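Before a colleague's protein record goes any further, I have to sign it off. Alongside the sequence sits a line of tokens, each denoting a local backbone shape. I want your independent view on whether this chain really folds as the tokens say. Where you disagree with what is written, explain briefly why. This is what I was given:
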Amino acid sequence: MRLSLCFKGMDLRRVVRVLNQCCAPHLADTWDNVGLLVQSSETIVVSRVLVTNDLTEPVLSEARKLETSLIVSYHPPMFSPLKRITNSHWKERLIAACLENRIAIYSPHTGLDAKMNGVNDWLLSPFDLISKKPITPVPHREESVTKLTLPISESFSQFYMSLSGTPVSARLSCIDGPTINLTCSTMSLPSVMKQARDVGILPIGAEEIRKVILFFILTLRDGQ
């Protein structure tokens, strides 16, 4: 399955900050290779994103026809370090073609699996579970979480970008008209509320919903 998204151009670094905020690369397994994997030496303005489960040569061919500037591949196309980039292996050809065509590659993988309301939670949602916990826990602490209901406005993207570095998750709701349900730790709530007010967004409601586990990794990967 593939999805192509087109929007007004945005600097790749800003796009990556948003993706890191949404996809929680710091929660990825230690063996995984997540985040921004390929970037050209020139500044890239992202106006079209191709989302795919696996980046293959046919997918890359489609991305080139669509003039895509960023590919978000759920599975990373490379795990181990490359010793050479030639035409002898399809993965090497992928990386070479992306660099030649100034196409960046980002992979969320196990970070998106592990985050609250991520892939793992989604896969478990059809089941009436009594409890659930990670097979391999990581350092954590309990913290209360607050759900903010925000109106959709033109300044929401500016507000969301200002939260870079603050762990939040956002979901669109259409139950009582289109709104955004933003979940953040109660500890970071004052900062989030200030950022919202600074761009003229007034929350419709706030509710402390439950105690959850927040995960912390002491050392982040280079570039994350």
